[in-house]
Amino acid sequence: MSKEVDYNTSALLEYQEQLNRLERSILLRSTPNNRPVKDEKLSVIVLFYAVLEHIENVNEEQQSMTVHGFHYLLWHDDYLYWNPADYSGVSRMSVHSWRIWKPDLVLYNAADQLDLPTRMNFQQHAWVESTGRVEYFPMFRHHVTCNFDFSDYPYDIQECPIVLGSWSHSLKELDIRSLLTKPILNLLWDQDKVIVSGWEVLDVHLNITYWNVLTNTQMSTVPSADLHYFSYPLVNIWIRLKRYSPLFFIGVLIPTVVTSLITLCSFWAESTHQAVFLLSFNLLLQAVLAEDLLLQLPPTTSSVPSIGKLQTFIVRKFKLTTCIFCSQVLRIQSDSNRSSYSNSCANGRKCFLPAQR
Fold this sequence. Notes:
- This protein is of the alpha+beta class.
- It folds into two domains: 10-243, Acetylcholine Binding Protein, Chain: A; 248-346.
- The protein is elongated.
- It is built from five helices and 14 strands.
């Protein structure tokens, strides 16, 4: 048993020595600041896809969203190659990401300065193969800005992008391509989970656009070769969300029906005092419901949501009911006064005596 342990230990030490020698050898040929191509006229092709693991927060007031996950990047480095036979058959190894070149992807629609880099820090590693193939999958926490429209609240559907791109390399130097057309959605490591933070994830998709710095426009097709120097590839990860509010309809329908019934009951009241009490109670109830609704409405809307229009209709209906009730009360009171006046004349009183004088 001890001989077997000693053999395994010596084998591991020898393997580690080969890795250290290999790392010292190939990293001398590569620098993190230079593109990994021997021909400077060639562009580095980087394949990209993303895995979304968690949506931490959807901030309706600030119109922003926080997303967690990791990116997968694949490219070829002309300087990171070796013959496995010279290093005891080692054909793949892990290196610190800060020791090799990697795409300088930044978050274009960052909501704060902390998320300008894509969290490609010192602790993350990259896998390098003897053929020069490099795989890099940094974890991220992106706090991005969105453009929400709450016109259909509470059944609104929002779409928010995560825009990534290089800040220093144009398409002539860096060509980012999509490895998968749809990012992998794996919320909290549960493939069936689609509801998080009060929102239901309907769809996620990815597309590559090209930003022309001269015209400040974006195009979805690859620009011509003469525009590569002025075009920057952008990775757009789109997240489509729907507000999850299964009980909102019940919470709105029941108060609406109750206030409508109270309004009708005011016409069926046996006395004026009962009708006034019902209308006063209805006014108080609608004020409480309106305040509760205003607290739930998103703070920033481009137009009045449908639920707001419904509440406005209910208030107008109450005003109309109050006006009708007041007119009826005044008509009844006027008829009562006329009846009393007619009875007085019928009893022989001089009804027109003041006029005759």
